[in-house]
Amino acid sequence: MTAVSTSVTVRRATRDDTDPLISVLAEAFFAGPVADWLIPDHDDRRAVYQRYFELVLHHGLEHGHVDTTIDLSAVAIWYPRPEPPRGTSPEHQVALEAATGVYAPKFTLLEAMFEAFHPREPHHYLAYVAVSPEQQGRGVGAALLNSYHRRLDAVGMPAYLEASNMRNRRLYLRLGYRAGPPLILPTSGPTIWRMWRGTPTATGPAAFPATEPLSRRRAR
């Protein structure tokens, strides 16, 4: 199904779109505090990101919902989360280590922290959204997300994401998200802003839901 928002045409991605969308993801996430923390060496980063985002995109196409634009300049990877996550599968961990090599410990830690502090309430999770550098700042990312937000609003379903920089955080606030308690990555890592887009209230965006580390939930 294709939806049009302003001048951006959004459609669901297919496996035929894999190569260009992997490049969009790798380029969009190449610079930034999380990238610097994960892989300080730029030459290594480029090679690892190509393999890592190939894994990410294939996983999204198989297990989630992937939207793109008609010109393949942007991509968003969503996952329905009707219940709390149950942990990383052994198969995924093997694939992650193969893709990221010596940098696997930090990638594993990042994914584990995201999972541990995930909201309990049913929602859809925006794992990744990326816009090619030459198209950034033109409203493409907002249009891509608004297309999916309309579907969520129609069924009263919240959305959740993690923002890795202040520019993106400001965009998500404009799109109706509310910031929650941040995560600070260890070993001098950057701050990650957890954000929730719930059903709007009379006073504005819905409050961020109460959360606790996954380990405590499992202990009960």
UniProtKB/TrEMBL annotation:
Which PROSITE patterns does the entry mention? GNAT (PS51186)
Source species, domain of life? Bacteria
Per its UniProt record, what Gene3D superfamilies does this chain match?
Answer: 3.40.630.30
Under the heading Pfam families, the entry gives:
Acetyltransf_1
The terms under GO molecular function for this entry are: acyltransferase activity, transferring groups other than amino-acyl groups
Name the UniProt record assigns to this protein: Acetyltransferase (GNAT) family protein
What PANTHER family would the database entry show? Answer: GNAT FAMILY ACETYLTRANSFERASE (PTHR42791), N-ACETYLTRANSFERASE DOMAIN-CONTAINING PROTEIN (PTHR42791:SF1)
Q: Per the database record, which ranges form the N-acetyltransferase domain?
A: 62-198
Originating organism: Micromonospora coxensis
> What are the entry keywords?
Transferase
